[in-house]
Every structure is written in C-alpha cells, then in structure tokens.
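User: Can you help me understand a structure? I only have the sequence.
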Amino acid sequence: MATNLKYTTPGLDEKDAERVVELLQDRLYAANDLHLTLKHVHWNVVGPHFIAVHEMLDPQVEEVRGFADDLAERIATLGGSPMGTPGAIVDHRSWEEYSIGRATTQEHLGALDLVYQGVITSYREAIKELGELDPVTEDMFIGQTDKLELFHWFIRAHLEDKSGALATDGATSEQQAAKAAG
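Assistant: Let's start by predicting it. Here is the structure, written out as tokens:
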C-alpha cells in the first residue's frame, strides 16, 4: 500500500509514520473483517447453547467495530487515508474468508478459536515493531489485544474440558477446528 503522506504528527518522521500507517491499515482490515465474521456467526449459530453464544457475540462485535474506528482515526491523525471498503478488505487481507455457514455453537466456537488466534498473533507481531516506531500506536494495539485475548478466552472456555485441554488443539483450519469442537 502506497501511503504518500503529506504530513504526519509532530515528533514522528515521515518514513516511520508511513510504516505505522501500514500497520494500522492492516489491523483496520482485520478489525472490519472480524466484526463482520462475528456478526455472521451470531446470525448462523444453532443448537442447545444458541442463546448464550448469540448474546455473547454482540458485545464483541461492538467492541471490535470500535477498534476499527479508532484505527481509522489514528491513520488520519498520522496523515494517511484509511481504507474501509469491502473490496479493500478482500483485496488486502492475508487470511481466508470465514468458511463456516449455519452450524452448531460448538462448531462455530471451534472455528472462531482459530480466527482469534490469527488476529491476536498479527496484533502481537505489530506490537513488537511499533515499540521502536510509535509508542502511541503501540499503546492502542496493546489495549485492543487485551480485549481480543479476553474475547478469545470467552470462546475457549466453551471448548475446554475439565483438565483444560482444548477440543481444537492441533487444528490448522476452521473446518478442522469446527469438526473437532462439534
């Protein structure tokens, strides 16, 4: 993504600001995709624990939507132009489309375990880089990661047995995770 900033925030050089905007934009794609995926699950989850999972997801959707707004506003603050269109998400994402349609709560939660793993891992990778570039954006990413890890725990609590083992352990795809959890 070519950034070509005309200005940036005081104390941050243009080269560093361009890289920070790239990291922010990648997370913006992820946040927009995640909140839509969570809403998709909310609409397509069925089974005995339907209402619990259905209602658990709405606060996650709202929080992640807020992340997207914060990320986009930070991009603009640094002199960039946030891209939030559906086509931009599809064109620039580094992950596959969520692959589960109408399914049981356990199947969706198994798939979401892998989704959250991917999102959190990419946030943590960006945090490492931001420590050198921009502590303000790093702080934002740390705060968002904290919430994402909490939401991931909510998902995983449904996938644990009494020994703490996860039903999705070793799964490498949403389909595998859904099958293992189902």
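Now, to help you interpret it: The helical segments are 14-44, 50-77, 86-92, 105-133, 135-157, 174-181. Residues 9 and 78 are 5 Å apart (CA to CA). Let me know which part you'd like to focus on.
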